[in-house]
Amino acid sequence: MIARAYHVPHRLHLLGCLILVACSGANGDTCHRNGDCASDLACVGPDEGPACGIPPRQECQNDQNCATGEHCNAIADACSATGVGSMCGAACTANSCDPGFRCNTSSACEPIPCDQGTTCLPYQQCSPTAAHDLSGPVYAHTDGCVNVSCSSDAGCSAGQACVNSFCQTAIGQCVVVMAVP
Question: Which residues pair with 74 in a beta bridge?
Fold first, then answer.
């Protein structure tokens, strides 16, 4: 009788552990938000921003930050959350800007707006207002492709998943987040 009493609580404890493990979101498990993962993990979707280990390139905010005769050019920057950085340089020409950028009437490179030629990624939508917002520093200017906000997969297009409150091309995964200096 004593042995049987021992096994029942042991089985309940084991069942409880299995339930907790299934709910904790171990490394590599699928997720929709950080709360789906264990406390030492984060939910990361396939279309999350960059994790470069270096800061975005933000050499200038406008032409006044550059040497005389140079312009503050928008450049492609994989370490920027928007994909746009900035650097001082000579006046641009029709072919001197990075792909996805054009030479504007002030002879500085700028992102091509989504309503004038840039095609947004499948999980984004074009916001002409964002595309033509030239306030703030050059590196804050974007092509206007913005992430689609969501609260569930139903708010996204077919085949997409709502991860960390925006639509992405697939469901997220619980991963170890490493601090990048």
Answer: 86
Query: pLDDT tens across 130-139, in order?
Result: 999 999 999 9
Sign of torsion, CA 69 70 72 76?
positive
Neighbours of 118 (CB within 10 A): 18
Which long-range contacts does 58-63 make (Cβ < 8 Å, 24+ apart)? 58/85, 58/86, 58/137, 58/139, 59/85, 59/86, 59/87, 59/88, 60/86, 60/87, 60/88, 60/137, 60/138, 61/86, 61/136, 61/137, 61/138, 61/139, 62/137, 62/138, 63/106, 63/108
User: What's the Cα-to-Cα distance from 41 to each of 17, 32, 99, rounded to whole Å?
Assistant: 19, 13, 36
Alpha helices in the chain (DSSP H): 2-24, 128-131
Give the model confidence (pLDDT) of 43-84 as tens digits: 999 998 776 778 899 999 999 999 999 999 999 998 888 899
Place of tokens 């609580």: 9
Question: What's the predicted TM-score (pTM) here?
Answer: 0.75
